[in-house]
Amino acid sequence: MSGQGPDTAPDATEASDVPKGRDLALPFRIAAALLLVAIVTLTVLQVVFRFVLGSPLVWSEELARLAVLWMTFVGAIVCCWDGSHLRVSQLPTYLKGWLGRALYGVNGAVIIVFLAILAWTAIPIVEMAHRQNRGALSLPVSYYRSAAPVGAVLMIAYLGLRWWRLCRNRQTRVEVDQ
């Protein structure tokens, strides 16, 4: 709900919730788009070579899987910057003032704690996976597994940058309004 005043918690649908200034997520938007193009291209090539030419590409499925994994986490970084992750926003909408802002802050803190645990626990898995190779590409399995900790750390960074920029813009608006 827009227009509830400055005392309500930010809502993902409000324009004021989008960080102002340069889009710091632009490189990740481009990377996600390129990964999507690669996935579609690899999938089409896979179908054409398998069913039309009768000679399947043995490496295309593995590369498409790797691209899907990385696209998922790269896209999640963009969602962190945009504030467009899936969430239930009814309760913060009805809570006014400091209570709504506090709930918004607790929600963000829970997300950061979860991402930190994800990154921390994934590191030993990536280290173990580096000793194994996968199929036709002979890539270390760590290339697949490293998407989670790298994505989690970057999501934490982008959530922090987003909050800093939103707080800075909110402070500037308050100074301008006075």
TrEMBL record:
Keywords: Cell inner membrane, Cell membrane, Membrane, Transmembrane, Transmembrane helix, Transport. It holds the Pfam family DctQ. Residues 39-168 form the Tripartite ATP-independent periplasmic transporters DctQ component domain. InterPro entries: DctQ, TRAP_DctQ. The chain crosses the membrane at residues 30-51, 63-81, 102-123, 143-161. It is a multi-pass membrane protein. Its main location: membrane. Signal peptide: none annotated. The keyword Disulfide bond does not apply. It is found in: Cell inner membrane. The keyword Transport applies. Belongs to the TRAP transporter small permease family. PANTHER family: 2,3-DIKETO-L-GULONATE TRAP TRANSPORTER SMALL PERMEASE PROTEIN YIAM, TRAP TRANSPORTER SMALL PERMEASE PROTEIN. Part of the tripartite ATP-independent periplasmic (TRAP) transport system. The complex comprises the extracytoplasmic solute receptor protein and the two transmembrane proteins. This is TRAP transporter small permease protein. The lineage of its organism: Bacteria, Pseudomonadati, Pseudomonadota, Alphaproteobacteria, Rhodobacterales.
